[in-house]
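Protein in question kept in full:
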Amino acid sequence: MDIRSLRYFIAVYEERSLSSAAKRCFVAQPSISTTVAQLEDDLATKLFVRHSKGVSPTDSGTQLYPHACKMVNDLTSIKSLFIDSPAPLALSIS
């Protein structure tokens, strides 16, 4: 399991569609499908029920979602600690 697989999982969960998640993540749909299947294998549980109109999360998918969001948000916060941002410019209006 890696952060990319969690990001893809979140996109599928929120979009309720593999193809929409792929568009959102700027990847091909097979990449999303393969990554979600690998995540399901890693966790030894089904995360989504696939059907003709998209996907629906299983109970396991619903349980994973808040944890995945927290992990992705925490990683983003950690990265932002070390990104050099320009010093704010002073602005005065006369």
About this structure: Helices lie at 3-15, 18-25, 29-43, 59-82. The mean pLDDT is 92.
